[in-house]
Amino acid sequence: TVSASANETATFTTSATGSLAAGAGTITIDAHTGAAGTVFPAAQAAYTVDGIEAAAAPVLSNSNATVTLTTPVAIDVSSGVTVTIAGVTNPPAASTTDTSSVSTSADTAIVPSATYAVTAPVAHVVTGVTASVNPSTANGTGITYTVGFSTSSAGALAGGTGTITIAAPTGTVFPSLPGSYTVNGVPAAVTPLGAGCASTPTNTVCLTSPVNIA
Predict the structure, then answer these.
(1) Integer CA distances (angstroms), 97 to 33, 88, 114, 144, 211, in order
(2) Phi and psi at residue 203, in whole multiples of 5°?
(3) For residue 126, what pLDDT band results from cuts at 50, 70 and 90?
(4) Cβ distance 98 to 56 under 8 Å?
(5) Taking the CB of residue 42, how many other CB atoms lie within 10 A of it?
(6) How far apart are CA 79 and CA 85, in angstroms?
């Protein structure tokens, strides 16, 4: 997914003269040309070679789109190798033609991968929104608004941090006291904020959920 944190796996086979010594041989993975905007992580623990954590901190270049690893294991000639990288940031634009390239300290020719896709993010939206007003008198005060909705498959909210934003017609004034609001029957504990979650409530209110919502 575009700009998302992702795990990358690179597989390749060394040449007939491409053996690498543990703790000395290096593997370079380059995405700055074929997948511009890729950002590799700086943490040594993010990288494994054949399931073993890299032997040293990665060396990053090209705005962190190129990484060189020291292999923690001996790699024989004509052998398959799997490098996994956790926490890569994908490029900012969707594409079906991105590539990464691999070379090693023994096999110095840069060889590109087959193309792979980076997809646009899936929109996560609530569904089944309902709203009722009681009573419905114009210019009335002390009105009770009841709003219902269902979260998306990725829309879980953590109690105390997740927020819910409700926008009402111009002229509506939401109350500013947390005790005026409940979420699934539980009173809000945090003072609600207005538009952008940074001002006093008017016709838009941002609530911090007091409960976990799956």
Answers:
(1) 12, 18, 9, 53, 43
(2) -95, 0
(3) very high
(4) no
(5) 13
(6) 20
> Based on the number of CB atoms within 10 Å of its own CB, is 176 exposed (0-12), middle (13-18) or buried (19 or more)?
middle
Give the closest residue to 118 by CA, choosing from 85, 83, 88.
88
Least Cα distance to 33 among 69, 67, 66 occurs for 66
- The rounded distance, in Å, linking the Cα atoms of 24 and 105 is 9
**Tens digits of per-residue pLDDT, 158-177?**
999 899 999 999 889 999 89
Interval 54-65: pLDDT, tens: 999 999 999 999
The pLDDT score that the predictor gives to residue 201 is: 78
| C-alpha span between 151 and 35 (Å, rounded) | 33
User: Is 157 within 8 Å of 151 (Cβ atoms)?
Assistant: yes
Residue 196: the pLDDT is 61
* Closest to 102 (Cα-Cα) out of 1, 13, 19: 13
Strand partners, 150: 127
* Residue closest to 180 by CA, chosen among 146, 213, 148, 130: 146
Contact 207, 181 (CB under 8 A): yes
The stretch 117-144 carries a mean pLDDT of 90
Residue 26 to residue 70: CA distance in whole angstroms: 4
Q: Which residues contact 132 (CB under 8 A, 6 or more apart)?
A: 145, 146
Give the 3-state secondary structure of residue 197.
helix
